[in-house]
Specification:
This protein is mostly helical. It has one domain. About 75% of the residues lie in helices and about 0% in strands. The longest helix has 30 residues. It is globular, with a radius of gyration of 16 Å. The model has no long low-confidence stretch (mean pLDDT about 85).
Length: about 140
Amino acid sequence: MSLLGFMSVKLDKQQTLLERLNEALLMVQSESLGRAADLGFNAEQIRAAKETLRDFVSRLREKLDKDKGGEELSVVVARILEGQFELNEWLEELAKLEMQLAQPAPLPPASIPTLEAVLAILDEELTAAFNQLYSH
């Protein structure tokens, strides 16, 4: 497989991950706002969405804490480490978020910006990678 083909497959996987995470975030946000039923989401979909997000947050926290968790998170970790918040602050926020996502209760609205920040990093990096790949 050519380098271009390899990179394209890798970016497609990252795009699929980002789409899954954004869909899960939408479901969790709608539940937090009491609008899940209005948008057609049922309890099982919300539970699965929370599990998807919790799994991602867990892997990200592990990657930040022990530099384990796969290549897909390397870019997010690098951006977090060069950001304005201390590593310990991120670890604490992610641990709290992971615990909240494991609960059957709606995610507190104050926790949503942390998820949005991580997904924004993924989105920015994916867009930059696609631009770089297809600008050649």
